[in-house]
């Protein structure tokens, strides 16, 4: 199984380069062999961390790893004696229709030239989606918020228009396939032949490799994006920002940016789907005699009526004061749970009144509990 370099460093797939460097330094210090003499596990872990950092800190290698799951170069040349990486032992080809199987071989040969494929490999293609995590406040999640997010992504190279090559006005034999237009890749005991990814099977080079992007057709940028978080999002919600993923291949459309939302807790309110719960204290007289009390909501203050004889734990529903349903002009409810707060016991007058109230109270409320 291929290693997940993001998991090795403990960072998200959309992590910025500074975040990757920070995670690498922290792990490298922890597992450095000099700090763990004789610990073979720490030594192996340190090598694994170095390997992951070497790929993820290099924009070109990272782009190739994100697309193909590997950052290793394939040997160049168009001859049939090319040797590849791991074989196809255990690979399940079931479920591949003719189109899917063709796509499989397109992807296989797109990496054969040892670089991120340009548009000539398989024509224009949609860019990769990016995924970022964002934490928002409880009330921002309810009301919605506009914010800005800095995203490290691949943008189409302006120097070559995303083609990966710069036209020179001259044609020459393709250096990758020697002008044959064919490329060979061997995987274990299986050998595959396909159109040369560098020249798209034409056998002729259409230009020189772009110096700005080194043939990748895309460059890494740090993009400051304005994002609108809609009202009603909750923890685990995803917000889609169209066209802000990685650049497409050969002029194809860019992928999308997906933002995973995490919501910080609120000191008073709790969320249950679209409903909001709140615990509110009431006094003994209010619970006994009934009262109108003011309670907070996420949309302002409102007044509710507490009926006489209210008990602790009794709940009251306020319609339409909960969280919005995303995309709809509907809100949930706020559920107010009251609990009775006893009066101060160190006031002698209150103590005397409580003793008098004890005499006036009805039968023992626990006499029907049974027991010996």
Task: Write a brief caption for the model.
The protein is of the alpha+beta class. It is built from nine helices and 17 strands. Mean pLDDT is 79; it is low at 73-105 and 109-122.
How many DSSP-defined strands? 17
Oligomer: single chain
Structural class: alpha+beta
Largest sheet: 4 strands, mixed
* Count of alpha/pi helices: 9
C-alpha end-to-end distance:
67 Å
**Order of strands across the main sheet:** 12-13-17-16
Q: Provide the helix percentage.
A: 10-25%
Average residue pLDDT: 79
Radius of gyration: 33 Å
Beta fraction of the residues?
25-35%
What does this structure look like?
- With 372 residues, this protein is of the alpha+beta class.
- It contains nine helices and 17 strands.
- β5 (182-187) and β6 form a beta hairpin.
- α2 (17-31) runs antiparallel to α3.
- The radius of gyration is 33 Å and the shape is elongated.
- The relative contact order is 0.12.
Question: What secondary-structure arrangement, pairings included, does this model have?
Answer:
Layout: H1 5-9, H2 17-31, H3 40-56, H4 59-68, H5 98-110, H6 119-122, E1 130-136, H7 138-143, E2 145-156, E3 165-166, E4 172-173, E5 182-187, E6 190-195, E7 204-205, E8 208-209, E9 218-229, E10 238-241, E11 257-263, E12 270-272, E13 275-283, H8 284-289, E14 291-297, E15 300-306, E16 315-318, E17 334-341, H9 348-360
Parallel strand pairs: 1-11, 13-17
Antiparallel strand pairs: 2-9, 3-8, 4-7, 5-6, 10-11, 12-13, 14-15, 16-17
